[in-house]
Amino acid sequence: IKPLRDPVRGRQMLAEIQARWHTLAARRGRPIVLMEFCGTHTVALARTGIRSLLLPEVELKSGPGCPVCVTDARDLDRAIALASVPGVTVATFGDLLRVPGSRGSLQEARAQGADVQVVASPLDALQLAIAHRERQVVFLAAGFETTAPATAVTVQAAARQGVENFFVYSLHKMTPPGLRAVLGDREIGIDGVILPGHVSLIVGRQAWDFVAEEHQLPGVVAGFEPVELLAALGLMALHWDEEPQILNAYERVVRERGNGAAQQALAESFVPVDAHWRGLGLLPGSGLALAERYRQWDAVVQFADCWRDLEPPKPIAGCRCGDVLRGVCTPLDCRLFGQGCSPATPVGPCMVSQEGTCAAYARFAVAK
Ligand code: SF4
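^ Those are the sequences you sent over. The predicted structure of the assembly is below.
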């Protein structure tokens, strides 16, 4: 890892990349606009200063690649309703705890007596169920293709072990449909995409070919260390004049076809369904629901009565997370940024999550 964080090498690469992008932007007569889809990239680009150092030649827009941020308010409202049912324990990752639905957060529900437990993995939630057979433990499974395989094998383990008091509320989403929705939005206007490294480990480089084939945009799969990010930006600049293609600058991790075992686990446990994304709406085939054979462990099926009477979610007053997630504005365009909304007092999910764009802008003082 050390060479990937080498400041001398990083500075040399940066100078070369800046010069190359300068030429390309001058030729185009405007800045080149790239989108980083992934929330971890958003944080890495802000933390390393690369986002600011590429200006004014390259403008980086953040995408909807933060799974907590894109969790829809209606799902959070349902989770809160579920947590209020006597005998039910909701197990969740810590990031989801403070995210607001339209009727408060899971943290507030817990303060009012609901049993909400923070777990580090789906397997922890299964262990919780095994240790407390008198409770019905519902795991809120949020995340993209990176985290979904762990849920997939956990539900398989629950079935094998006959654990009848464990359930999964799947909030899992797939990134290619999410990116497809963003690229189809004419308001955004981007020239290229920095593609998520962790997700690509599972889905493979080829999963992104549609970006070049359907949208005629270049893309590059990137790692997360400073030198890796610069290498990805350099590789993209080098191939800028060619036919759009999807490059792989994260070859130490990402293969052409991804991880077959993880894909198999996903295919056995889940089926694609339409899913609501905060900011993007209902995206066809973008969610993962438990397969029919795991119906008994599917909280969406088993607890449907809990949210039958819930009203549709209300928007959070003044919060522009939806626009931030679509890349049509930056956190700096939200009038609440730093004026009531901060990591200590978050108003919207993009400020709550560690991978949220607003949180990254606030923590690393991104000024433009
Ligand atoms: Fe929402 Fe806060 Fe971000 Fe504004 S700054 S978009 S209120 S999270």
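The longest strand covers residues 281-290. DSSP finds 18 helices and eleven strands in the chain.

Shout if you want it in another format.
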